[in-house]
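Subject: design request, 327 residues
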């Protein structure tokens, strides 16, 4: 009796496990079937689908372009880190030992990344090469230029660099220090303003995307009102009826995101050729930064979520309102 009971329990547990596994597989099979069916529905209405995808892609292009504009401006700002370099002009009459001692002290300072000493003779030689007054400088009886220590702060932000300058100005053999960073501060302010503008414009355009997809799905629901009524008569749940429309929103997001990416990359290729011709005149190798792999997948995820949100808001409102009418 105990053997028979245990055998029945074992077979029942196995059947139960098989049932759960099968239901799990069928759940995903049904979702895949409805996803492909919704893709086929978009294929059967190419004009309306392409129009919606085009509007979605163009709407996503503007915030992505502004994001890349800010990203490249930050690249320019970061490339001018040397603008935060402090020039310490040494008092005339300071000995080489005093200069070396100050340089060693500054190199051990935790707030300083690098210290470079430019001697009087080096400064005069560079000035002669740059100015073109080399022969005239040979008539000088003494070198009028001072020794200079170039100090690069670890923190190149404007306020931190100014605080370091004020501290270094108090050194005994320092005549005065110079830090020309106001223009870089203004550049950072412009970048910050652009970041805020991008956020506002992106919110407005992404809200428009949700409304566009929602309206497209609403029209699709209205066109299939009779089919939905029949499905409800035979016992279909709202969740089952809503699923293909939700997948339509997802497909709109996928194709709209890809279109936005292609537009942005094409625009960057076009602009890069123009920028190269300008940067070559200045001996620069600046190149526009495009979307990284992480940013691309973030764009695609955002587009899919927008499509899903627009379709969800539409189906929740309209499908539940459709009820089968009596004979």
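Subject: RE: design request

Done. Sequence follows.
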């Amino acid at each position: 009796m105990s053997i028979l009971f245990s055998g029945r329990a074992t077979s029942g547990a196995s059947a139960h496990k098989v049932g759960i596994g099968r239901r799990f597989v069928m759940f995903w099979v049904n979702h895949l079937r409805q996803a492909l069916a919704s893709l086929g529905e978009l294929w059967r209405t190419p004009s309306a689908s392409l129009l919606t995808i085009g509007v979605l892609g163009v709407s996503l292009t503007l915030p992505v372009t502004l994001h890349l504009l800010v990203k490249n401006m930050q690249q320019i700002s970061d490339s001018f880190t040397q603008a935060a370099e402090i020039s310490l002009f040494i008092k005339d009459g300071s000995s080489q030992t005093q200069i070396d001692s100050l340089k060693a002290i500054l190199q051990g300072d935790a707030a300083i990344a690098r210290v470079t000493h430019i001697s009087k003779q080096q400064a005069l030689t560079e000035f002669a090469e740059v100015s073109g007054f080399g022969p005239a400088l040979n008539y000088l009886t003494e070198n009028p230029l001072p020794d200079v220590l170039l100090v690069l702060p670890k923190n190149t932000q404007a306020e931190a660099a100014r605080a370091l300058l004020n501290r270094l100005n108090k050194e005994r053999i320092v005549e005065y220090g110079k830090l020309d960073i106001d223009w870089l501060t203004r550049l950072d302010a412009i970048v910050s303003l652009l970041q805020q503008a991008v956020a506002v414009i992106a919110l407005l355009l992404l809200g428009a995307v949700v409304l566009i997809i929602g309206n497209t799905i609403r029209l699709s629901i209205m066109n299939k009102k009779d089919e939905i009524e029949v499905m409800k008569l035979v016992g279909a749940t709202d969740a089952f009826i809503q699923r293909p429309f939700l997948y339509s929103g997802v497909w709109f997001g996928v194709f709209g995101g890809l279109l936005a990416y292609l537009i942005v990359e094409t625009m960057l290729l076009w602009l890069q050729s123009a920028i190269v011709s300008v940067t070559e005149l200045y001996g620069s190798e600046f190149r526009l930064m495009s979307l990284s792999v992480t940013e691309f997948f973030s764009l695609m995820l955002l587009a899919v979520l927008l499509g899903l949100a627009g379709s969800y808001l539409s189906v929740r409102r309209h499908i539940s309102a459709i009820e089968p009418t009596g004979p």
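The beta strands are 86-90, 112-118, 148-153, 174-178.
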